[in-house]
Amino acid sequence: MVKNEMLVRESISFQRYKDPKRALGVSIRVLIEEWLEEMSVENYVINDDLTIDVNGRVNLSHKNLITFPEYIKFRNVSGYFSCDNNQLTSLEGCPSTVGRSFFCDNNQLTSLKGCPSTVGGFFSCYNNKKQFSEKEVRTYCKVESVNPL
Length: 149
Description:
- By secondary structure, this protein is an alpha/beta fold.
- The chain is built from 4 helices and 9 strands, in the order H-H-H-E-E-E-E-E-E-E-E-H-E.
- The protein has helices at 3-16, 20-23, 28-38, 134-140, and strands at residues 44-46, 52-54, 58-59, 74-77, 81-82, 97-98, 102-103, 118-124, 142-146.
- Strands 1, 2, 3, 4, 5, 6, 7, 8 and 9 form a 9-stranded mixed beta sheet that branches.
- Strand 1 (44-46) and strand 2 form a beta hairpin.
């Protein structure tokens, strides 16, 4: 390939993307890192599949979240995971497994789709748009106990 042809192709690729970060080759990994830093999440690893493991707790309470960004997909959190007191309408992006307790109270949830499949402590999901029964929680999640709903 001639050097000028390569420059033309790179120029066309640059123009194709409206997002300047993507055009400059800034990866999803950088977006994930920036979001985790903004949310004060520590002790994390971004896996090859871009899921996130956290050795410890994740506290996303009172962050004015409506949904998680599409590039945020937690996988395993060894401590507790709290996304309570937001305006969440979906739990998509929440971890698959939580070592301790999971809190999604005081949101706008109408479904538990996207919640963890395993929680080592208790699962708390009261005061949402829909009230969930213990049976509904256990349909989605293997959990030690369910907080009074």
